[in-house]
Amino acid sequence: MEIQDIIKEKIEIINSGLFEYMKHQDLLQGSIFDAMSYSLFAGGKRLRPIIMLLVCDMLGGNEKEALPFACALEMIHTYSLIHDDLPAMDNDDLRRGKPTNHKVFGEALAILAGDSLLNMAFEITSSAETKAPKKTLRAIKELSRASGALGMIGGQVIDIESENKEISHDVLLKLHSLKTGAIIRAAGIIGAVLSGASEEEIKAVDGFCLNLGLAFQIQDDILDVSGNEETLGKPIGSDIENHKTTFVTLFGLEKAKEEVGLYTEKAVSSLSIFKDKAKNLISLAYYLINRSF
Q1: Cβ burial, residue 115 (10 Å; 0-12/13-18/19+)
Q2: pTM of this prediction exceeds 0.70
Q3: What is the mean pLDDT of residues 117-130?
């Protein structure tokens, strides 16, 4: 099966799971579920939960046990986008080709929709039925760390405090290894943990996700200056408008493209211990290197 078909299949599985969790809109506070669902089902690549499910497949894990965690991860990612788009943050009007959440529901409900998605993620994972409670606990710990001040939020703080400043390559790497990379790494680690992987296997998967996350972010920086707004579903040039240092502003477009290839190859080499079992993850890495969305 081609990687595009595998991605499509995984997205259908993930979306089905998400739909089940969002069946609460007949409540008096149903407007919050409207706001949550608006952003959750506005499109998106579902990259992070796809990685988790592909790692689970590679290691012979139970996809049904991993699905609640995959859905929770997508909820956390979506919450971060809702908050990232707010006037106090990036002040964006467009996300995934549609008006941002606060443009449709107002700032107050958008903030609460993000908060609710974050809380629902941990409600789902703490209620997940698995055969190994210790694995579940470690997975929840990885998820909470990756989404907090030592992970994604920490990266967002560095991002905000770096606006209108020239920052070094090392700071830029740290920023993106947290803001973008922490959740991507959590996807791989959780998929491995739930599948009963050894520490050596978890380390290999983590290496893949770390480098894939950097390649993915650099490609985002490239698309921010050379992409198509309709294809991307968000404004072009927002990084320049917000006076942010990116891999493109730091190195130039051609060097940034080289860096995407370099980190992709590092990601792929991290999976060498899995041999042919890693073919779908490797195909995903090469698929992402050529994306225009």
Answers
A1: middle
A2: yes
A3: 93
